[in-house]
Design brief:
two-stranded antiparallel sheet; SWAP; alpha+beta; single chain; RNA binding; 33% helix
């Protein structure tokens, strides 16, 4: 990983890696590199009690004394003590700005579109809106006869 001079060593090609011709034959496109992967043996210990405690969240601690918000003791959010500067309603750039009726209507429509997938099965809705093959043929025939 590091060279003799203290800096990073240049990546070397492993002896197990070989370049071969790609799927198109010799010289017919990109080259394929075989990859040698190896690992080390390790011993796994089964501890059902500890696994159950982990599953139930017993390892979590309350954030800032609030038992509704539980975090892992290594969670970086444990270092945040005052979130008021990050709250949207206290930000300084738009504190006094109020939406007009038209802007509020547009924002409501945008929110409806934004969160549509949360409340609606979009694939089912699309299948309902797209006519089947027979219905398409029938509509084309009726257009030809009337036009």
């Amino acid at each position: 990983m590091y060279g003799a001079g203290g800096g990073r060593a240049k990546p070397e090609r492993k002896s197990g890696a070989k370049e071969e011709a790609g799927p198109g034959g010799a010289g017919g496109g990109g080259s394929r590199v075989e990859l040698l992967v190896f690992g080390y043996a390790c011993k796994l210990f089964r501890d059902d009690e500890r696994a159950l405690a982990q599953e139930q969240g017993q390892h979590l601690i309350p954030w800032m004394g609030d038992h509704k918000i539980l975090i892992d003791r290594y969670d970086g959010r444990g270092h945040l003590h005052d979130l008021s500067e990050y709250d949207a309603e206290y930000s300084t750039w738009n504190r006094d700005y109020q939406l007009s009726e038209e802007e509020a209507r547009i924002e409501a429509l945008c929110d409806e579109e934004r969160y549509l997938a949360l409340h609606t099965d979009l694939l089912e809705e699309e299948a309902r809106q797209v006519p089947s093959g027979l219905e398409k043929q029938e509509s084309l025939r009726s257009e030809r006869t009337s036009g």
